Amino acid sequence: MQEAQQQMLDTIAAEARYTADYTGRSRFSPAVMQALGEVDRAAFVSPAYRDRAYDNGPLPIGDGQTISQPYIVALMTELLDLTPDSVVLEIGTGSGYQAAVLAQLARQVYSLERFCGLAETARERFTRLGYTNIEVRCANGYNGWREKAPFDGIIVTAAAPDIPPALVAQLKPGGRLVIPVGPPYGYQVLMVVTRDAAGKIEQRKVLGVAFVPLIDDGIDNGDEAGRSKQ
Ligand code: SAH
């Protein structure tokens, strides 16, 4: 691992300590930190930003979108409480970095991205890097991916105006949805929604965050995710 990437991990660990009062976790699990060490963020940014690949901040990835801040990637991954058997759905593939981190920890990752160009670039990256447990579709993810449901974890990497009911419905008993909720470019809060074994839904607020908006263009293509247009 490059020294800059080790510094990125140190920064994440420090920020986990500062935010412990909000998140309830002063240290992220060794498995999550190891996954962050194994995925090279530089492989997910364009050459123009490669010298900033390990900065603890978002970076542009085209189409007006961003690769998320590494600390937030770590936190959201941590909050999913994945096991090697988990099946995860991500909404907002973007660069593919978050999906790659999830793929280190889970059995299978499904990811939806509404910009087909970004989805294609991410898919090429996964092939080049040898990932065989990530499936990407170009689609509006607001209604999830019914064909592949239910999921142990669902992670939304764009801010939703509300908690999409279809995503809650696609959680397994014991499953967790990690999602930023709030208006576009306004006050957004990271939330964890859990469905317990009896089907009871609980939600908790974790931390104030700043995400690009989840765009719901009204297309319900949850059954046939590949059908959507850009
Ligand atoms: N997880 C990404 C971060 C992506 S930023 C990474 O690791 O790089 C959020 C992404 O969500 C953007 O790529 C955006 O195009 C996508 N997005 C926004 N609304 C969406 C929707 N309704 N369905 C699927 N993807 C969406």
Automatic annotation (TrEMBL):
<protein>
    <recommendedName>
        <fullName>Protein-L-isoaspartate O-methyltransferase</fullName>
        <ecNumber>2.1.1.77</ecNumber>
    </recommendedName>
</protein>
<dbReference type="GO" id="GO:0030091">
    <property type="term" value="P:protein repair"/>
</dbReference>
<keyword id="KW-0489">Methyltransferase</keyword>
<dbReference type="GO" id="GO:0005737">
    <property type="term" value="C:cytoplasm"/>
</dbReference>
<dbReference type="GO" id="GO:0032259">
    <property type="term" value="P:methylation"/>
</dbReference>
<dbReference type="Pfam" id="PF01135">
    <property type="entry name" value="PCMT"/>
</dbReference>
<dbReference type="GO" id="GO:0004719">
    <property type="term" value="F:protein-L-isoaspartate (D-aspartate) O-methyltransferase activity"/>
</dbReference>
<keyword id="KW-0808">Transferase</keyword>
<keyword id="KW-0963">Cytoplasm</keyword>
<comment type="similarity">
    <text>Belongs to the methyltransferase superfamily. L-isoaspartyl/D-aspartyl protein methyltransferase family.</text>
</comment>
<dbReference type="InterPro" id="IPR000682">
    <property type="entry name" value="PCMT"/>
</dbReference>
<comment type="function">
    <text>Catalyzes the methyl esterification of L-isoaspartyl residues in peptides and proteins that result from spontaneous decomposition of normal L-aspartyl and L-asparaginyl residues. It plays a role in the repair and/or degradation of damaged proteins.</text>
</comment>
<keyword id="KW-0949">S-adenosyl-L-methionine</keyword>
<feature type="active site">
    <location>
        <position position="68"/>
    </location>
</feature>
<dbReference type="InterPro" id="IPR029063">
    <property type="entry name" value="SAM-dependent_MTases_sf"/>
</dbReference>
